[in-house]
Amino acid sequence: MEKKTSITLNDALTQAFQAAKSLPTEKISFLKASGRILATDIFADVNMPPFNKSAMDGYACRKEDLGQWLNVREVIPAGKSPQFKNEPGTCSKIMTGAEVPAGADTVFMVEQSEANDQQQIRFTGSKTNSNICLRGEDVKTGDLVLTAGTMLKAQHIAILAAAGCTRPEVYQKPKVGIISTGSELVEPTVAPQASQIRNSNGHQMRIQAEQCACEVNYYGIVADELEQTRQRIASSVNENDVTLLSGGVSVGDFDFVPQIIQQLGFQILFNQMAVKPGKHTTFAINNGKYIIGLPGNPVSSFIQFEIFAKPFLYRLMNYTAPMIALPLPLANDFHRKKADREEYVPVKINRKNEVETISYHGSAHIHAYHQATGFMSIPTGVTTISKGETVHVRPL
Ligand SMILES: Nc1nc2c(c(=O)[nH]1)N[C@H]1C(S)=C(S)[C@@H](COP(=O)(O)OP(=O)(O)OC[C@H]3O[C@@H](n4cnc5c(N)ncnc54)[C@H](O)[C@@H]3O)O[C@H]1N2
Ligand code: MOO
């Protein structure tokens, strides 16, 4: 039997990133761009704010006139230009968001004002901020407001809107074909018979891939039979950028995936990772097409998607996914028997920001992730971690 060589997650990511060719770009409506990766820098086409803008509902005047009785020249609503310049001894009633009249350098709040019988207004406070947002103080015309490689979230859509960029250029979605291998599998609508098990991975991977801006094509279950598996993988490879498989990558008599992907002209870059769960994760490339074989156990498939497939898929869109690992104290003692691999186990972050481990039986036990708010990493060589020691948790 072919000897497998284990590599670290870091080495696996380095190799996969080197092999990743970025996808073409497309222009789409900014309203459809949430979760997509920006392909160009975006520059402001206007100043922000575009004019000296009142930050408060109140009265615009000269600072040196604060405390004096002032004649009110006009009322300035937001969206309407002032009609008068601010003259000494006068003020203009102004609304938040309205343009401050020339000559005024202060807006005092309506709560800090009083009126006399002649309808004159006076500042009643002891001091006030200017309450004016100056033209261009946030962003100047031509400023860089978003950089290529940004994942567009609501706040970035706001920035696109403010910059008038309604058709941003983004990377195309990677097309991902998903196949679940295993003669024991039935779809979730079916009641499993003896020796059968429901296909949970296929659907888990569909959602995971959709959540990282991929276009998913689901190819269903394929039995552990050479020709069927070859045909299904070949179809997915033809129709997608990435083929994501679960199962069939170990060393069993019916684990056909490695031989098929080689027969299809793919080069396997690695087929074993020193990570638990996910020992048999396999990655292969062929001319801008990729195959990721994830182990069949549902937790292995889930974790390997999160730590390996996801950053790789993002790389095809030139996005460097942040790998946040929060350093937090452990709430209870933790022990494991074997320490030959880096391991990820499900945890809950409690109200005291401590990490509680969850009862977990191993890589088939996806139910352990029901209430997990993250997974903690245990480095190679470490068997025991005591209560209060710092661990690193990736939030889910
Ligand atoms: N002699 C050895 N046997 C095994 C080794 C090994 O190193 N030497 N590694 C074990 C580890 S670790 C894992 S993980 C599995 C990986 O095996 P495969 O990727 O080939 O996966 P299968 O054998 O097809 O399935 C494993 C397990 O997961 C269930 N499964 C598969 N697909 C699904 C699915 N879509 N939804 C839900 N559950 C699924 C399957 O029924 C099996 O129980 O190999 C070990 N063996
Ligand atoms: O690699 Mo297996 O995924 O450890 O259970």
From TrEMBL:
<dbReference type="InterPro" id="IPR005111">
    <property type="entry name" value="MoeA_C_domain_IV"/>
</dbReference>
<dbReference type="GO" id="GO:0005829">
    <property type="term" value="C:cytosol"/>
</dbReference>
<comment type="similarity">
    <text>Belongs to the MoeA family.</text>
</comment>
<keyword id="KW-0808">Transferase</keyword>
<comment type="function">
    <text>Catalyzes the insertion of molybdate into adenylated molybdopterin with the concomitant release of AMP.</text>
</comment>
<feature type="domain" description="MoaB/Mog">
    <location>
        <begin position="177"/>
        <end position="315"/>
    </location>
</feature>
<dbReference type="Pfam" id="PF03454">
    <property type="entry name" value="MoeA_C"/>
</dbReference>
<keyword id="KW-0501">Molybdenum cofactor biosynthesis</keyword>
<keyword id="KW-0500">Molybdenum</keyword>
<dbReference type="GO" id="GO:0046872">
    <property type="term" value="F:metal ion binding"/>
</dbReference>
<dbReference type="InterPro" id="IPR001453">
    <property type="entry name" value="MoaB/Mog_dom"/>
</dbReference>
<comment type="pathway">
    <text>Cofactor biosynthesis; molybdopterin biosynthesis.</text>
</comment>
<dbReference type="InterPro" id="IPR036688">
    <property type="entry name" value="MoeA_C_domain_IV_sf"/>
</dbReference>
<dbReference type="Pfam" id="PF00994">
    <property type="entry name" value="MoCF_biosynth"/>
</dbReference>
<dbReference type="Pfam" id="PF03453">
    <property type="entry name" value="MoeA_N"/>
</dbReference>
<protein>
    <recommendedName>
        <fullName>Molybdopterin molybdenumtransferase</fullName>
        <ecNumber>2.10.1.1</ecNumber>
    </recommendedName>
</protein>
<dbReference type="GO" id="GO:0061599">
    <property type="term" value="F:molybdopterin molybdotransferase activity"/>
</dbReference>
<dbReference type="InterPro" id="IPR005110">
    <property type="entry name" value="MoeA_linker/N"/>
</dbReference>
<dbReference type="GO" id="GO:0006777">
    <property type="term" value="P:Mo-molybdopterin cofactor biosynthetic process"/>
</dbReference>
<dbReference type="InterPro" id="IPR036425">
    <property type="entry name" value="MoaB/Mog-like_dom_sf"/>
</dbReference>
<dbReference type="InterPro" id="IPR038987">
    <property type="entry name" value="MoeA-like"/>
</dbReference>
<keyword id="KW-0460">Magnesium</keyword>
<keyword id="KW-0479">Metal-binding</keyword>
<dbReference type="InterPro" id="IPR036135">
    <property type="entry name" value="MoeA_linker/N_sf"/>
</dbReference>
